[in-house]
């Protein structure tokens, strides 16, 4: 069997997305846990010239960028597909992924999560309330649009999860550790959807480290 290795910082929703995909495919893998300082070492930059995570290896084949890794896994392990066959549903999945990567994470989840969890609880930095206040309107826009796009089905792909479900679930599971995140999804269709995602074995087996959730 091929050897699969994933490099990343435990607690990162992007690393977790890859791990969830591997669990959904029932593929054994090794996790090489990193610290933030490791991201700029020459060893890691040789693997990932942009110094980001996650990074994936399989028998000498290296790949970075979260959705590229998950799409590759879906190609080589096609059972229980994570990419819908219907062109419109597949296009909707890609649209949601774009919202996550361009708006939700960089402009909402990352600034709120850093100011509420990473900075004050793990790094001893004071929260900057102005940054949180600036991020909340974009977060509201993202949640409203994602709720509209997901509709009333169990998952974005109907009765099957997709790459978008995995990536959004990893993001919202962490964001809702903050009061702002819980308030944002309260009463929306994303609230029971997130509960369904959390009940999946792949989510239970990839929970963020206790130190991170305790900090939240």
Question: What features would you describe in this structure?
Answer:
The chain has a 4-stranded mixed β-sheet with strand order 2-1-3-4, covered by helices on one side. The mean pLDDT is 94. It is 58% helix and 8% strand. The chain is an alpha+beta fold. β1, α1 and β2 (30-33) form a beta-alpha-beta unit. It is built from 10 helices and 4 strands, in the order βαβαββαααααααα. It has 2 domains: 4-76, 3-Layer(aba) Sandwich (Glutaredoxin), CATH 3.40.30.10; 87-215, Glutathione S-transferase Yfyf (Class Pi), Chain A, domain 2 (Up-down Bundle), CATH 1.20.1050.10. The protein has helices at 13-24, 42-47, 66-76, 87-122, 129-150, 163-175, 179-185, 190-198, 201-204, 210-215, and strands at 4-8, 30-33, 55-58, 61-64.
List strands and helices in order, with pairings:
Blueprint: E1 4-8, H1 13-24, E2 30-33, H2 42-47, E3 55-58, E4 61-64, H3 66-76, H4 87-122, H5 129-150, H6 163-175, H7 179-185, H8 190-198, H9 201-204, H10 210-215
Parallel strand pairs: 1-2
Antiparallel strand pairs: 1-3, 3-4
């Amino acid at each position: 069997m091929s050897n699969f290795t994933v490099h990343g910082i435990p607690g990162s929703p992007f690393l977790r997305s890859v791990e969830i995909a591997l669990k959904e495919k029932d593929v054994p893998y090794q996790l090489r846990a990193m610290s933030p300082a490791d991201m700029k070492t020459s060893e890691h930059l040789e693997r990932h010239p942009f110094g980001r995570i996650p990074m994936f290896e399989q028998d000498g084949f290296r790949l970075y960028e979260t959705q590229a890794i998950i799409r590759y896994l879906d190609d080589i392990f096609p059972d229980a597909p994570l990419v819908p066959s219907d062109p419109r549903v597949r296009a909707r999945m890609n649209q949601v992924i774009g919202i996550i990567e361009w708006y939700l994470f960089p402009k909402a989840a990352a600034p709120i999560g850093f100011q509420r969890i990473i900075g004050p609880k793990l790094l001893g930095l004071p929260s900057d309330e102005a940054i949180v206040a600036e991020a909340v309107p974009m977060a509201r826009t993202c949640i409203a649009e994602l709720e509209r796009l997901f509709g009333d089905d169990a998952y974005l792909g109907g009765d099957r999860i997709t790459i978008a479900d995995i990536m959004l679930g990893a993001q919202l599971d962490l964001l809702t550790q903050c009061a702002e995140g819980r308030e944002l999804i309260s009463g929306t269709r994303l609230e029971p959807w997130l509960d369904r995602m959390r009940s999946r074995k792949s989510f239970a087996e990839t929970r963020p480290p206790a130190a991170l959730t305790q900090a939240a």
